[in-house]
């Protein structure tokens, strides 16, 4: 899977999302819950992020799409020859065109849709967002504010392999159109070489009711496990929820981050999310980017 498509693909979206940034980095956030056995601390101990498949996400509509046929009446003899990879005479072309159009409509379309749908079960995805202080994000993904939020810094030159790609939101399904030549290429290639337009419409679209998440997704390869290494230098800070609470849990977190910094020669700091006194908002005291009182 190509995890860093050309930056210009996202430049406009990055700008419209008003991403938190400085001269060198874009900042992305990941809200996480802490399990009873503290296995999630493997994020720090093993420098691994947990990925999952879209088919397992909490939104049943996640990554669904409509497949539309490109007008096959305009199929040329050259197109047909490129598909079957051999020249044909005019008689064969006239007969072949009718057959291939009929087969595409009756057989290839459902096969193609099924093939694209398998991406939901093949491509590992990990999610970030650009809305770190949103109360709902903490409630839904950080165990009702009892968990953590991780801040990652992504270089503006996109030199890291971890590149969060923006999700788009709409109240209608995305439409994937594919010609016969594209179909042939798709069925013959592996998921590491998928056309970005197909990938974007199949795995980067959601209902606009999720718009508040400002979600971004990073992809692994079909051959990857669901625990994938990240560069520890991209972890910028760790923020505890307003109900993080437990002294023992905080002690373990501090010990874990101390070891993380020592092992990776980093300077990750721990901050605390806090409630505003006069409005329904959060802030992170003394944080260089999230201390908005």
Question: Topology, please?
Answer:
Blueprint: H1 8-16, E1 25-32, H2 42-45, E2 48-50, E3 66-69, H3 77-84, H4 90-117, H5 119-122, E4 125-129, H6 135-141, E5 148-155, E6 165-166, E7 168-170, E8 175-178, H7 180-188, H8 196-203, E9 205-207, E10 215-219, E11 227-229, E12 235-240, H9 247-264, E13 269-275, E14 282-284
Largest sheet: 5 strands, mixed
According to DSSP, the number of beta strands is 14
Helix content: 25-40%
Radius of gyration: 23 Å
Characterize the structure shown.
The chain is an alpha/beta fold and 293 residues long. It folds into 2 domains: 171 residues, no CATH class; 90 residues, no CATH class. Helices cover 32% and strands 22% of the residues. The chain has 9 helices and 14 strands. The strands form 5 sheets. Strands 1-5-12-13-14 form a 5-stranded mixed sheet. Strand 13 and strand 14 form a beta hairpin. It is elongated. The mean pLDDT is 85.
What are its keywords?
293 residues; alpha/beta; 14 strands; 22% strand; elongated
């Amino acid at each position: 899977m190509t995890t860093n498509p050309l930056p210009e693909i996202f430049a406009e979206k990055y700008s419209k999302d008003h991403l938190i940034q400085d001269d060198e980095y874009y900042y992305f956030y990941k809200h996480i819950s802490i399990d009873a056995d503290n296995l999630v601390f493997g994020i720090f101990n093993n420098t691994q992020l947990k990925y999952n498949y879209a088919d397992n996400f909490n939104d049943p509509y996640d990554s669904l799409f409509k497949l539309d046929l490109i007008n096959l009446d305009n199929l040329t003899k050259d197109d047909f020859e490129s598909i079957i990879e051999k020249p044909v005479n005019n008689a064969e072309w006239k007969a072949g065109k009718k057959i291939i159009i009929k087969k595409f409509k009756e057989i290839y379309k459902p096969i193609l849709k099924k093939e694209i749908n398998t991406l939901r079960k093949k491509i590992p995805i990990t999610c970030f967002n650009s809305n770190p202080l949103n109360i709902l994000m903490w409630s839904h993904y950080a165990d009702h504010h009892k968990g953590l939020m991780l801040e990652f810094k992504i270089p503006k030159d996109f030199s890291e392999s971890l590149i969060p790609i923006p999700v788009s939101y709409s109240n209608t399904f995305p439409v994937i159109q594919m010609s016969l030549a594209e179909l042939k290429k798709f069925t013959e290639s592996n998921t590491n070489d998928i056309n970005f337009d197909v990938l974007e419409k199949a795995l980067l679209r959601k209902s606009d009711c999720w718009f508040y998440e400002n979600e971004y997704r990073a992809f692994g390869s079909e051959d990857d496990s669901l625990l994938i290494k990240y560069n520890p230098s991209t972890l910028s800070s760790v923020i505890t929820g307003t109900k993080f609470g437990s002294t023992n849990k905080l002690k373990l977190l501090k010990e874990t981050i101390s070891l993380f910094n020592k092992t990776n020669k980093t300077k990750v700091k721990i901050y605390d999310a806090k409630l505003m006194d006069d409005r329904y908002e959060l802030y992170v005291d003394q944080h260089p980017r999230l201390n908005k009182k």
